[in-house]
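WARN retry 2 of 3 for item q-0093 after timeout on previous attempt; input resubmitted unchanged.
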Amino acid sequence: MALATAIGSVMALSGVAEGFTESFRGVYESHRVDVVVSRQGSADRLSSSLEESYVAEVAQVEGVSDAAGVLLETLSAEDQQVYGIPAMGMRTDSWLFTDYEMRAADPGLAENAETIGQVYLGENLAGRLDCEPGAILNLFDEPFLVAGVFQSGSVWENGSMIVPLKQLQELAGRDGQITYINVVLDESIEAAQVDSVVKRITAVDAKLLPLATDEFVRSDTRMQLAGAMAWMTSTIALLVGAIGTLNTMMTSVLERTGEIGILRAIGWPAKRIAGVILCESVMLALLASVLGGIGASLLLNVLANSEATGGLLQPTIATSVWVRGMAVGLGIGILGASLPIWRASQMRPTDALRHQG
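OK item q-0093 returned
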């Protein structure tokens, strides 16, 4: 049970970390973004600040098909007691905005509603706020029309909202600023040519830091911290599991001392007995890994569907996490059997039989 809990903890924590990373990567992959441009030298790229005018300059770079600026902020719907909502500011006439599958409100509502602006809600967020297209949502004690509910290929985006760029800039006091630029390259650009386009974007201004999407995600500070914290916490769980496995196998050997003595007396070699103990330990470890993995999957599914983390996590554990969990369980099973194997191999038949008597 201790090992199953340990393996489950490893797989759950790793699954959460990878879920965040996959949700983050999906923000860009769902829109076929090839390069993300942020500000050079920013400690946190998701809160960096670029001038909006760079979007037009980047769009003119050879090899670039489209470019769209995005301003990231965090808003709260206090009436519904939903806080920390990711808000993406973008131009509603950009290719990025039109890439969303949108259920728009009746155009007449926008003209008749007494609101100061419009917002668009991801389908998961709309469910949490219980808002449909045409509803009124209060932000900063001001009424905003829910002009549409959108669906994205990104779990994270489905839990966020879109605010027209100028409007979000005014709300956040960041006039003329964006966080990063999403860049789509020409279809003629092959993978080997991406670096040359990145260099041309860098040449526009030394303040710009263009990175291929995968590198941008992997090198993000938040993703690295999530992964590091998951493995640091898992190490403690694994230590507990390893001690539990060692204790179980040692107890098994001690309880079967007489049996081992009889086997040695009838001619079983020490290697054969060691093989039996090792097989038993490995089978227990693999069973614990499966049970722990199932428990981790159920826990992650509950977390992914909860209000607190809804729209932030993938509800499934990746195959790579399952493979790592099984490998760790197998390793602990082998290590946990090492001391009992040594003790059994050193046991003389006469001593074992005397112990039984």
